[in-house]
Amino acid sequence: MINRRTTLRWLAAAPVASGLAAAVGLAAEPAVREIRISAKKFEFTPSSVTARVGEPVMLLLSSEDRIHGFKMPDFNLRTDIVPGVVTAVQLTPDRAGSFSYFCDIFCGDGHEDMGGTLLVEG
Q1: What is d(CA 74, CA 62) in angstroms, rounded to the nearest whole number?
Q2: Would you state the pLDDT for residue 111?
């Protein structure tokens, strides 16, 4: 039979138990690694970045001059990069390999060379 004393003990312990569960859940989640990529006419800097399979990565994209696009078809990523704004795109690579990204908003002669590579290690 549950009495008032048992109920009070359970209510007092509940926040501690839920806090421990949350802490255990957070500890099990891998940390998100941030990678900054800057875009300007005809180039991404850096033009090559590295991640590991299963590693959550946050790409922080910025533009130095005008609106650019960011497209990485292999991971179904696509966004605009607007000057003065950091655009965050998260991904967790599920396979090893070399994956291209490129600007998909025309920015003048040389636009076709504006690209980079995500190298995912196993």
Answers
A1: 21
A2: 77
Core vs surface per residue 75-88: b (16+ CB within 10 A) or e? bebebebeeeeebe
Q: What are phi and psi of 75, to 5 degrees?
A: -115, 15
Closest CA to 61 of 72, 52, 51: 72
> Within 13 Å, how many C-alpha atoms sit on residue 7's CB side?
4
Give CA separation, 2 vs 8, 11, 14, 18, 122, in Å.
10, 13, 16, 21, 54
The model's pLDDT over 15-59, given as tens digits with 9 standing for 90+, comes to 444 454 444 555 567 799 999 999 999 999 999 999 999 999 999
Report the candidate in 122, 115, 77, 72 with the shortest Cα–Cα distance to residue 97.
Answer: 122
Q: What is the pLDDT of residue 21?
A: 46
Average pLDDT, whole number, for the chain? 84
- Other Cβ atoms less than 10 A from the Cβ of 10: the count is 11
H or E, element range at 43: strand 43-45
